[in-house]
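Hi W., the pyridoxal-5'-phosphate complex you wanted:
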Amino acid sequence: MGNKLTQTGIPEPNIQQLLRRLPKIDDCLAALTAKPSLHSIPHACIKSSVRDFIDLQRQRIFKHELVDEKVLNLSQMLPAMIDHILKKDQVQFRRVINATGVIVHTNLGRSLLPAETMDAIHEAGAHYSNLEFDLETGSRGSRYSLVEDLLCELTGAEAGLVVNNNAAAVLIVLETLAKGSEVIVSRGQLVEIGGSFRIPDVMRRSGATLVEVGATNRTHLHDYRTAISDETGLLLKVHCSNYRIIGFTKEVENKELVALGREQGIPVAEDLGSGCLVDLSCYGLMKEPTVQEVIASGVDVVTFSGDKLLGGPQAGIIVGKKTIIEKIKRNPLNRALRIDKFTLSGLESILRLYRDEQTALATIPTLAMISASIEVVDKRARRLLRLLRKDLKSHCTFSVIDAASRVGGGAMPEQNLPSRAVTVEPQHLAVNRLECALRSRDIPVIGRIEADRLLLDMRTVGDDEVPLLHKALRGIFY
Ligand SMILES: *Cc1c(COP(=O)(O)O)cnc(C)c1O
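Structure:
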C-alpha cells in the first residue's frame, strides 16, 4: 500500500512505521552502560533522560520533522542521546560571562561581590553565628542590629533595617505608614520597574490609596498641598530611576516637600530605587542624589536596593527616623520579608568597604566597572583581539570598536559610559548561530548582535575572563 500524498505532493511519512522503529529504552540503556562520560550520573537519571529523549523523537515524528527511517537506528541516535543526558545532568544555575556592557544586569544577576564579601558569606554558611544572639548579654539578639549602626554611620540616618529586596521595602513602608489612608504621589513618578513592580500596584497591595497629583511633566508644591486631607498618611517621592522626563518639567524639591510634611504633620518617604552612597558624577554620569543627601534633606524614610548601585547582595534597605523605623520593625510583615544570614553577612561586608570611599570604588565590582577608565577597557579589548586573531583569523574577522556601556538595573537611564567592544564577524557561519553557540558553551557568553556582527563589550568582562572568552570562541571553531 502506497503512502498518502500530502498537499504538496510529497508522500506523507508512515508515522506508525517510524514510531515502531524508535529504539527501545532497554536497548538504549544497554548501549549506554559502556560510556565513560556518563559514569558519574545515577542510573535512574539516565533512564529518565533516555525516556525524555525518545519522547522528543516521537514528537518530532508526529510533527513530520523526523521522516527518515535511517536516522532512527540506535547507533545513529546515540551521540545526540548522550548530549541530551549530559545536558539534563548539568547544574542549572550557572556562571556566565557578561559581554553586554550592562553593568547591573538584572537578568544576569545584577551585582558581583568582592572576594572578601564572599568569604564572609562562606563563613556565615559553614558555621554557627550570632545571627540572633547578643554576645554581650548571652541572650536573644536581633539580626537587624548587626548592620544598623553601619547604615546609620554611612547615611546619617537615625535608624535602619533591611528586608528581602527594595520592592519589599516599599511595600512594608507603605503598609506600616499608610494602610487605610491616602498616599500622595506625583503623576510623573508612578513608575514601573522591570515588568512586575509598579508603584500603583504595590500601593494597592499595601492597603493604601494612591492620590496622584500634578501632570506627567510638572508637579508643584501647591498640587501636594491641595491634595492633603484628613485621610492623608504619607507624601511619597519615587526616584525616576529607569526613565527620564525631559523638557518642560518641574519636580518639587525635597526640602519644600519636607517643610510641607512637617507643617501638616505628615511623614515624607522617598523610594530611591538604586540608592548610591558615593557621588558618581565624576565618572561622566549625571549627578544622582546620594542616600546621605536625601536623609540630610529631612526626608523621614528612604528605601533603596542592596544589589543595584550599592553593589551588594539582593536586599531592600530602609533608613530614616527612629520612630518610623521602630514601627516598621514591629510590623508582622517584617517577619515574612526578612533577610537571611547570607545576605546579612554579605551586606555588612559591603557596607564596611564604604567606610572608605576609595576602597569602595576599588573593590566593589559594580563601582569598579563604572569607574574603570577607557584605557583599562581598551587594553582588555586589545588583549582579547590579539588572542583571537592569533588562531581564529581564518574563521572570523575581528576588530575593536567604540561602544557604549550602561549602568543598568534601572539606574541612570539614557546615560552611556564610553567603552570598547571586540566585534566578531564569522566567515562561514551566520552571526546568530555564533551568538547561540556562545550561549551554549560550558561558561556561556552573552553578547549582542549589531549590524551582522557580534559585539563583546569589554567593560563588563573581567581581566581574568579574557582567556575564558578566547577559549569559548575557539571551542566553536575547533
Ligand atoms: C529597582 C527599583 C525597585 C525595586 O527594587 P528591587 O531591589 O529590585 O526589589 C523599586 N523602586 C525603584 C525606584 C527601583 O528603581
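The pocket of pyridoxal-5'-phosphate is lined by residues 165-167, 170, 191, 193, 197, 238-239, 241, 271, 273-274, 305, 316, 410 (CB under 6 Å).

W.
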